[in-house]
Amino acid sequence: MTTSPGRRSSTxxxxxxxxxxxxxxxxxLLDLDALASVRSDPVLLEALGATADPDLALRGLVRVVExxxxxxxxxxxxxxxxxxxxxxxLLGVLGASEALGDHLARHPRDWRALVTYESAxxxxxxxxxxxxxxxxxxxxxxRVAYRRCLLTLAARDVCGTTGLAQTAAELADLAxxxxxxxxxxARTAAPEDxxxxxxxxxxxxxxxxxxxxxxxxxxxxxxxxxHDGVDETKAMQAATRLAAHMMRICSxxxxxxxxxxxDANLRPEGRNGPLVRTLSSHLAYYQxxxxxxxxxxxxxxxxxxxxxxxxxxxxxxxxxxxxGAADRENFVPDVQKMRRRVVDNIPAxxxxxxxxxxxxxxxxxxxxxxxxxxxxxxxxxxxxSGSTLEALxxxxxxxxxxxxxxAQLDEAYRFLRAMEHRIQLHRLRRTHLVPEDEADLxxxxxxxxxxxxxxxxLNKAWKRHASVVRRxxxxxxxxxxxxxxxxxxxxxxxxxxxxxxIRLEALGYADPAAALRHLEAxxxxxxxxxxxxxxxxxxxxxxxxxxxxxxxxxxGFRKVSDALGKTPWYLRLLRDEGAAAENLAxxxxxxxxxxxxxxxxxxxxxxxxxxEGLRPRTREHLEQEVLAAVGRAGDAESAVAVVRGVRxxxxxxxxxxxxxxxxxxxxxxxxxxxxxxxDRVGSAVTDLNAATIAGALRAAVRERWGDTLPTRFxxxxxxxxxxxxxxxxxxxxxxxxxxxxxxVSDEEAGRAANAVVGEMRRLLQLPTADPPLLIxxxLRPEGRxxxxxxxLKSYEAYYRRWSLVWESQALLRAExxxxxxxxxxxxxxxxxxxxxxxxxxxxxxxxxIRRLKARMESERMPRGADPTLHAKLGRGGLSDVEWTVQxxxxxxxxxxxxxxxxxxxxxxxxxxxxxxxxxxxxQTLDEAWVxxxxxxxxxxxxxxxxxxxxxxxxxxLAAVGRxLGYEPGHVGDMLDDYRRxxxxxxxxxxxxxxxxxx
Length: 998
Known about the structure:
Layout (H helix, E strand, L loop, with lengths): L9 H8 L5 H8 L11 H8 L4 H14 L2 H13 L1 H13 L1 H9 L12 H4 L3 H7 L6 H20 L5 H26 L1 H6 E7 L1 H4 L9 E9 L5 H20 L10 E2 L12 E2 L1 H10 L3 H7 L3 E5 L1 H16 L7 H9 L22 H15 L11 H10 L5 H25 L10 H10 L6 H19 L2 H11 L11 H10 L5 H12 L4 H18 L4 H15 L3 H9 L1 H11 L4 H8 L18 H14 L3 H28 L10 H32 L5 E7 L1 H4 L9 E9 L5 H19 L10 E2 L12 E3 H10 L3 H6 L4 E5 L1 H15 L7 H17 L18 H15 L11 H10 L5 H25 L10 H10 L7 H24 L4
Parallel strand pairs: 2-3, 2-4, 7-8, 7-9
Antiparallel strand pairs: 1-2, 1-5, 6-7, 6-10
Helix pairs in contact: 1-2, 2-4, 4-6, 4-7, 5-6, 6-10, 9-11, 10-11, 11-14, 15-17, 19-20, 20-21, 21-23, 22-23, 24-25, 24-27, 25-26, 26-28, 27-28, 27-30, 28-30, 29-30, 30-33, 31-33, 32-33, 32-34, 33-34, 34-36, 41-42, 41-45, 42-43, 43-44, 43-45
């Protein structure tokens, strides 16, 4: 074909019109002698243009024609242009699968398998595939015969003769026939082994469910028994050899390639267990050791090869165990664990292209369906199907899943599986990744009927269906629960109350009846509030179920909604602010403290919808708000009531931020720097308490003296308050110092200072709905027997004459917190020489500190407490770390400015930087201190009251575990990790505090 320079031939134009992307190369292929007799036939171009990839189809056709013998070529070409069924099938396969094109080029006569078009060819079963593999006598001939059968199967698929479900079932039937043929080859190779044993092959996974992919591992379990008179051990050895040989026949790569991997890792004990077990051995394992996921896998068990009676016995024997799995002790935490999508091991650059495991992927649909089968299948045999689509249909028919939701999931699942098939068919490789290359995307799109703009249409449809799965795969657990308590249209199926209770129990609700009452109260009626809550609840129920206490979350939501449900901004906040609803769910279901704070003023829920709402307020901001509120109040009690309301609101802000940071959300992963979490809580609570005390001080002064107290007055923070390390339940340790104003007598100043202290303490502990702030002044000179407040001169005289080493140690945490700043600075300057003595501590003082610490360990530990689990006084806990750090501060603070800080972690880091402690030891102490601090915070968050040990209640312990980052069912790991980390810290303390080091 020749054309004038610069002009395109009419063939070139026609090729473009028919979908070729490289018309020049196609022209050259059509000019080859091999296609001389058909190149001008219009039906050829039409048929090529109808394929997924016309360029690939033409290249494949040329290879097939050229590979055949001379006489064979003309027969093929004549049949191609005269027989439409062959033309559509052959070119359809060549345009979709480069791998099957390679097969036809190696075995050019196999095109004849596509010629016949009888009704029996349209829906072959296992028997027809067995007939197609009957001549296979070795691995190579089995591969060739398998590909020939696959060729006809793929042809029906790409031509639309069979739908997705039928194609997947045929692939499973072909796999069944192949396993039988491979086992027959293995038995022929070792007749003496075959004579000793019965061997059954049970298909699992997608093969067992008759929903196989083009290229997928074929999951199997082997069951063996000895023939009569044969020793069982020898029979099992023989069965193992046969099974292993059968697996190699299918899995190994030969000159004819491979078929697929046969994977037996779903067997009891996985790779560590024997390849073949007797039926009794299988049952003993399942009854005693099996986990929920193993029963989930057994949902799809189907005998496919070997001894049919033995296979049937196995399936019949395990069936009651599968459908009774929901009654097992750990079913609920296992369900919670399995419901969390496993995407951690997917590389970040691939997760968005993952059809199977990515968000909105195939696994989401399959897991949701299987778990609903496990929950409800024990009382409804109609759900006992290994096929995802059949089971989804049965769930909808029974009212376990809403019909509309099931229809959307069915459509999305079929589309995603069809994409997966087309991706794998191209090169017959096991992959679930959507390709990035535009040519690949174009071929996939065209193969699915998208011809206008295949790439854009494919991406749009894929994202739409994945979005449907993301939105629905968890909602299908919960939406039917609302239908169960709502009035439905006549004829609609719905969950019975019993089935609804069963599902709620399986999802972790301890009191399903109460949960159903809450759902009914929240979702019934025709109000706007009920309508919005019906939309929100399926999502909220999922978040509640993901917590350690779903019942508390649902009850809390009902209380908040009862309080705020008629407030327009509340419903709008939850509906429109995506983060607000999830944040609320996390806060309400994580323990008692945050919900208790919220219930006292539910309008604080607005904090959860503001992007800046969870950020702690600065002390300056808080003091400004508090002092302004005091200035507006009519009297001291009303002033401090407002101040305590601010404190409650800010405590809620801090607890909410802590919980959300610890749990993470769908859009924001959990905070990995646990030290930063502890520091934020400590700083926020410290600033909040300092501002609260400043407000109480101003209120007490204004009530009696107006704007000016007769004496300058300052509050010095001590202990964790001074160290900015307060936990939620900590008292505020303080010292009170005053200095009489000019012209005021010591007696008058003293009376005024004592009166202010007494009034402050009274105001902050008045019984109200807001949490009290307890002020503890026991660290003052002479302790509880000494005066509550002293002048700066009195402190100076006492410390110069009477001060003990423990008081110097306590002063390491002294920092001005409220009142007169100049006086506060003067006090700090006064005590600096005591806490950072020049030349450090003498040996007598060091011995005294060690003696005091040892005495405290023996006397202050609560009776019956486990010293390995006590966060404050236990082995390697807060006290151990803090005393070790404080000893270094007192010995070296005079020479190392970095040690002059009230904060433990800062001082530890400074000691490490100064070379006073090795980095590894410092890291060990820091890790233990952070963990112990988080345990104390967790206990307060979960129980609503302070504690230094892990809770004994199982649900509370699980909630502490969730806060600390442990999945359900792993509280044992949490306790083991705590003991291990604190044991290592104690070893450092023994060396650095009690030993010679330091």
